[in-house]
């Protein structure tokens, strides 16, 4: 096992990684911006290094500053968490070239999956189902129009280099396509430095289901189980549950087999997620993208499998065998993303936390990045904590989620707890028969 670990991230995921590393006897190093100096992850690490100001480009995305911190503290390995530099192949390659252990997949796999068009083509060649769409970038709006006519409206206009639900728009006809193509292309150039655009079939009623995979140190790829991620706002997840209420044993077998094929196609190592769109009317599913990192929603998979995915990541990076028992799953888990945002329109509402009381009890887990007296900065994502509940079945998990939401007290920044209270009484959600349009239908 590696002996020292620098966590190149912040907030709840940095704190969560540090917790596991310390349990395993690994010395932990936190890096932080000056704004984050008093956050729990900084205080709980064995050592901490300030790497720059609040602007992420000058701190958490500053590869040179992070590498300098690793060298100055004698770190043996770097864990990138999610976001920031976690899916940057150049950073992963540089870490390895500097003689450090990268706790994640290889740079080639990150690069292959980072471009949606390339990923689609690789998956199709590997026998993984993909949605009808373009196999080459639409370099002009006319090329996009021809692709849309071939696929059939409505279509999704997507930034090829995008991720996290950003750089996507729906077009129902030629006029909308012209408008949305230019918006997506411009946004992609500004945000990702790559204006490549992909045209894909849009499914008005679809579920978002993903599979957790692990590429093991011995070269095998295994699939754990699926997660349901259809409760979204602006194509970004708010609630996840495992297992998915939409997935039958037969469909699960097909999903997991496809996820293994996806990982094998790029010689995947470490933790990753194969995301799919599921047509509830037909049971057909299509590859959406592969996230080459630890997912925000990984705790619900941990709970139903009785494992620690961060430990598995560290074992793989250390060349050690996995401790996962694929046959062991039980119960039902739900994760609610507690964000500093308006619960109606979901606009960010950062600020200083004056009250922070977490719920507790059997089957309740809170992975938080903040405590009372700390400040949610406008410079970063609005995620404050993840509320995770576990029950013997879905109904019990929902009941525990209701009680936990009612027992979670936050004052200062805005928060979306009232939205979750509403969702957990919503008949469509309670039925389990919902899709990615559920939040828009609630508003």
Provide a brief overview of the structure.
The chain is of the alpha+beta class. It is built from 15 helices and 20 strands.
Can you walk through the features of this model?
The protein is of the alpha+beta class and 443 residues long. The protein folds into 3 domains: 4-103, Rossmann fold (3-Layer(aba) Sandwich); 132-201, 2-Layer Sandwich (Dna Ligase, domain 1), CATH 3.30.1490; 207-442, 2-Layer Sandwich (D-amino Acid Aminotransferase, Chain A, domain 1), CATH 3.30.470.20. The protein is built from 15 helices and 20 strands. The protein has helices spanning 11-23, 40-44, 63-73, 89-97, 107-114, 116-125, 141-151, 174-192, 249-265, 298-305, 309-317, 394-406, 417-423, 427-431, 438-442, and strands at 4-7, 27-33, 47-52, 77-79, 101-102, 155-159, 168-171, 197-201, 207-215, 221-233, 236-242, 270-278, 285-291, 332-339, 351-352, 355-357, 364-368, 375-376, 383-391, 409-411. The longest helix has 19 residues, at 174-192. It starts with a strand and ends with a helix. The mean pLDDT is 96.
Shape: globular
Let me know the largest β-sheet: 8 strands, antiparallel
CATH superfamily of the largest domain: ATP-grasp fold, B domain
Structural class: alpha+beta
EC number: 6.3.4.14
Domain ATP-grasp: 120-318
Keywords: ATP-binding, Biotin, Ligase, Nucleotide-binding
Domain Biotin carboxylation: 1-443
What topology emerges from the helices and strands here?
Elements: E1 4-7, H1 11-23, E2 27-33, H2 40-44, E3 47-52, H3 63-73, E4 77-79, H4 89-97, E5 101-102, H5 107-114, H6 116-125, H7 141-151, E6 155-159, E7 168-171, H8 174-192, E8 197-201, E9 207-215, E10 221-233, E11 236-242, H9 249-265, E12 270-278, E13 285-291, H10 298-305, H11 309-317, E14 332-339, E15 351-352, E16 355-357, E17 364-368, E18 375-376, E19 383-391, H12 394-406, E20 409-411, H13 417-423, H14 427-431, H15 438-442
């Amino acid at each position: 096992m590696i002996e020292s670990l620098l966590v190149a991230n912040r907030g709840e995921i940095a704190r969560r990684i540090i917790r596991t590393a310390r349990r395993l006897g690994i010395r932990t190093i936190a890096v932080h911006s000056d704004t984050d100096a008093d956050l729990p992850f900084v205080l709980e690490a064995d050592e901490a290094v300030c790497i720059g100001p609040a602007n992420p480009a000058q701190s958490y995305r500053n590869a040179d500053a992070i590498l300098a911190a690793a060298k100055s503290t004698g770190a043996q390995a770097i864990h990138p968490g999610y976001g920031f530099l976690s899916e940057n192949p150049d950073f992963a390659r540089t870490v390895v070239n500097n003689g450090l252990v990268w706790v994640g997949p290889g740079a080639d796999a990150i690069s292959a999956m980072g471009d949606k068009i390339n990923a689609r083509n690789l998956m199709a060649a590997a026998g993984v189902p993909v949605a009808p769409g373009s196999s080459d970038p639409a370099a002009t709006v006319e090329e996009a129009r021809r692709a849309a006519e071939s696929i059939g409206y409505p279509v999704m206009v997507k930034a090829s280099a995008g991720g996290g639900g950003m750089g996507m728009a729906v077009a129902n006809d030629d006029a909308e396509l012209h408008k949305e193509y230019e918006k997506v292309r411009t946004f992609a150039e500004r945000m990702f430095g790559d204006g490549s655009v992909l045209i894909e079939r849009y499914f008005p009623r679809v579920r978002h289901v993903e599979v957790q995979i692990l590429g093991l140190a011995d070269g095998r790829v295994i699939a754990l189980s699926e997660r349901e991620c259809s409760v979204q706002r602006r194509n970004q997840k708010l609630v996840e549950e495992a297992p998915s209420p939409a997935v039958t044993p037969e469909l699960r077998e097909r999903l997991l087999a496809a996820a293994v094929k996806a990982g094998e196609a790029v010689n995947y190592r470490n933790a990753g997620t194969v995301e799919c769109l599921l047509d509830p009317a037909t049971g057909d599913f299509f590859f959406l993208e592969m996230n080459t990192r630890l997912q925000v929603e990984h705790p619900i998979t941990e709970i139903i499998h009785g494992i620690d995915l961060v430990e598995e990541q560290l074992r793989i990076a250390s060349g050690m065998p996995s401790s996962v028992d694929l046959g062991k799953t039980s119960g039902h888990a739900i994760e609610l993303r507690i964000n500093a945002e308006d619960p109606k329109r979901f606009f960010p509402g950062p600020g200083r936390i004056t009250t922070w009381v977490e719920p507790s009890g059997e089957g309740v887990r809170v992975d938080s990045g903040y405590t009372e007296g700390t400040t949610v900065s406008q410079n970063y994502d609005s995620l404050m904590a993840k509320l995770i509940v576990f029950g013997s079945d879905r109904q019990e998990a929902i009941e525990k989620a209701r009680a936990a939401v009612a027992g979670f007290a936050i004052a200062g920044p805005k928060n979306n707890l009232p939205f979750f209270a509403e969702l957990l009484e919503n008949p469509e959600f309670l039925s389990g028969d919902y899709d990615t349009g559920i939040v828009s239908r609630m508003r």
